[in-house]
Amino acid sequence: MRIVSLLPAATEIVCALGLIDDLVGISHACDFPPAVAGRAVVTRPDRGPAAGPARRGAARVPGAPASAAPRGRARPAAPRDPEAPVAIDLEALAALRPDLVLVGPTSPAADAGRRLAGDSPLRDAVGPAASVVTLEPASLEGIFHAVATVGAMTSAEDEAVGLVEILRERLADIEEVVAERREAGIRAPRVVALDRLDPPRSAGLWVPEQVRRAGGWEVLGAAGDPSARTSWEAVAEVDPEMILLAPWGLHLAEAVAAWSRTPRPAGWGEVQAVRRGRVFALDAAGYVSRGGPRVIDGIELLAEIFDPAAFVDLAPAGSWVPVL
Question: Please, which pLDDT band fits residue 304 given cuts at 50, 70 and 90?
Answer without folding.
Answer: very high
